[in-house]
Amino acid sequence: MQEIHVVGAAIRDGKKLLAAQRSEKMKMPLKWEFAGGKVESGETHRQALEREIFEELGVAIKVGKFIADGYSKVGDKTIILHVYEASILEGVPRAAEHAQLKWIDIVEIPELDWAEPDIPACKEIIKIYGD
Length: 131
Hints:
By secondary structure, the chain is of the alpha+beta class. The chain has two helices and seven strands, in the order E-E-E-E-H-E-E-E-H. The longest helix is centred in the middle third of the chain and has 13 residues, at about 45-55.
């Protein structure tokens, strides 16, 4: 079984978290996720995350601590999502590939329909920052 490693950024601003809704054209359409993408050959997770977030959202980020891994099976592939905390250094996020972006309160995380691989990170963020 082939493993595909992807990274996601849990972009926080205090008690707010940036959620990205997948477009109708993507796999798992209209599910919510942490923006990010595939790790290219020779990239670290942090490098991939900085590149992907700049490409997808048009912002520069500072990647923080690791939060959690999530998994999903797509056909004969296992997708492994590595989620890291991040903060915006420069720019205003825009939805170039996603249906929409939304800043939510951390306590609102359970109200969204998250993609399966993102759920472990959601639970960890609530545990750490949800009080």
